[in-house]
Amino acid sequence: MCYAEVPEPRKNPMVRPQPLVVTFEDQEWDLSCVRDFARVLEATCQSPDVIVDMSIVTFIDCACLGRLLAMRSERAANGFPPANLVIASIHVRRLFTVLKFDTIWPIFDSLEAALRESTVPAAS
User: Fold this and answer.
1) Can you spell out the DSSP letters for 8-75?
2) Which residues span the domain enclosing 54?
């Protein structure tokens, strides 16, 4: 079964907004669950600061990679920067390097590293 968690963003005007963190909790994402993958990514197109945590993902196929590209395009159309991706698997990182996806997304080894690079400025 495909599953991903999309937490509710915290809203407090006195504190720097937290990025929306989307966490994929299955190791393999392929054509059989591309609809679930796309559904989870929908939320990323409405938030300026997003982290897609794929740290436990060990396999992703072209259908899901296409959904990531669509998410990137929709974010750009909404005036948002690319989402930060967390990819821990050496195999998935290698795939992103071969496809040159590492040149169009910031990629981090851990969620903590991605959180440190959050892009939304504090409210004044």
Assistant:
1) PPP--TTSPPPPEEEEE--SEE-GGGHHHHHHHHHGGGG-SSEEEE-TT--EE-HHHHHHHHHHHHHH
2) 19-113
